[in-house]
């Protein structure tokens, strides 16, 4: 090998190493640590781990995860700030970066800025709405409801989602926009007909009701609307949640969404596009390897190996989202201060019990609460 | 010679990367120290901004000052403008601007509804702790004759999906303000103000 070839080899090797280091791994270490802490129920440590977030290609994902950690810590103000920042950055990413697209052709799709699947973007607004509901900021929840509705209008073949429609409908109902709320409830009824939802009130039919009729309440009766996330942190995935107040059963939850289904359907929708891109990238990498090979065999082998080593599927996603999302809308006492929840498995076994005192907000005759099956 | 050429090439690559990454002022944030001309300031995008706030509030104020209900310098209370858009907009800033102008021009008096609780608390404190001659009298507050309310809506229109290097967006804001006579429950005065904004966003960027 002469000195020119050696220099070429060094230059090429250096550039590839710089590229590898510069693009970075798909999921950076602090995020992985925070996720592990989250799974272990150590929310405070998880939050601390993500105190300083880098503004890199994973900015949206980092903010999604930190927002969720803060949401579960009941730090709704900071969680809201994170998710609003994620929404803003995601909007900026509508303009495709030529440099990042070029880098993704040489490295892998992790070089591209993470925007998330459409359902993940919608869930930013769903959880923002939850934060506002938890703080009794009804008008702001209404703003997020309109954003959810806008997101659901441009699905472009990606899966529709009943829970997002329900959240939009409920927030619009609270803001007095009953006609648009009914439109959203209608979508829920279409997607989950077995829930037996009433389009005008958002109420569910009674369990085992032979008449298929939803609960009919007197005009001044109070009701509790509780948004429940199921995770199965207690070792067994809950199937249903039963709500109690003063020892009396109020009613049960209705599962509207499985996150796994949303993710699978979204991946399927993207599969063709991603396969085509992977093929183009491999062809491009092959051409680069051949070009290097034509100059020097060793350089060709090294280039080929490095470029292939960079090949890695983009597995980035919002991992702290719950497994399932449910809603319970039940009649309740007018002086409700707290309520109990019993999580049950499919076989009826009690998986977990919890007492909820906060967040529990009231708007006119409706109590609103949010909770998650989390340690 | 070839070694020198390679070294020069490498140095050029590194210098270009450094220049693109940090050197050029285009890539750096800058702050203007002088005041930005608020009348001439151009909007950055189609989102609601201070120009909308100023223009909508001023337009409503101009109409309201001309209305017959203002002739007797009425006592008014502001009950808020409903934000029916998909943006988190501080609609209180609109009513604050309207109120400031009406008070400063001596056209109307306003009940401080947002500080009512604090006011009651202070009166309660005075009742217990202050000397009789300096205590404010309880039950002497004035009642409003008119209530100011309203709503802000937004209609957005995007370019349909097509092969293009830019995406066009048009946004229409409409502010409706109404003044209700609290005695009769009738709407005594109402106005609507509109703003249309257009913007173009590139599909491709660096």
How is this structure best described in words?
- The complex is a heterodimer of chains A (375) and B (206).
- In chain A, strands 5-6-2-10-9 form a five-stranded mixed β-sheet.
- Chain A has helices spanning 3-23, 29-39, 43-49, 59-72, 76-92, 98-106, 118-134, 138-153, 162-174, 178-191, 259-295, 297-310, and strands at 96-97, 223-230, 240-245, 248-252, 254-258, 324-331, 339-344, 350-356, 360-363, 366-372.
- The relative contact order of chain A is 0.14.
- In chain A, 51% of the residues lie in helices and 15% in strands.
- By secondary structure, chain B is an alpha/beta fold.
- Chain B has helices at 2-23, 50-66, 92-104, 116-129, and strands at residues 75-84, 109-110, 146-158, 166-181, 187-202, 204-205.
- In chain B, strands 2-1-3-4-5 form a five-stranded mixed β-sheet, with helices on one face.
- At the A-B interface, helix 1, strand 1 and helix 8 of A face helix 1, strand 1 and strand 6 of B.
Task: Supply the key terms.
heterodimer; A: 375 residues; alpha+beta; five-stranded mixed beta sheet; four-stranded antiparallel beta sheet; 51% helix; elongated; B: 206 residues; alpha/beta; 6 strands
Annotate the secondary structure layout.
The complex is a heterodimer of chains A (375) and B (206).
Chain A lengths: L2 H21 L5 H11 L3 H7 L9 H14 L3 H17 L3 E2 H9 L11 H17 L3 H16 L8 H13 L3 H14 L31 E8 L9 E6 L2 E5 L1 E5 H37 L1 H14 L13 E8 L7 E6 L5 E7 L3 E4 L2 E7 L3
Parallel strand pairs in A: 2-10
Antiparallel strand pairs in A: 2-6, 3-4, 3-7, 5-6, 7-8, 9-10
Chain B lengths: L1 H22 L26 H17 L8 E10 L7 H13 L4 E2 L5 H14 L16 E13 L7 E16 L5 E16 L1 E2 L1
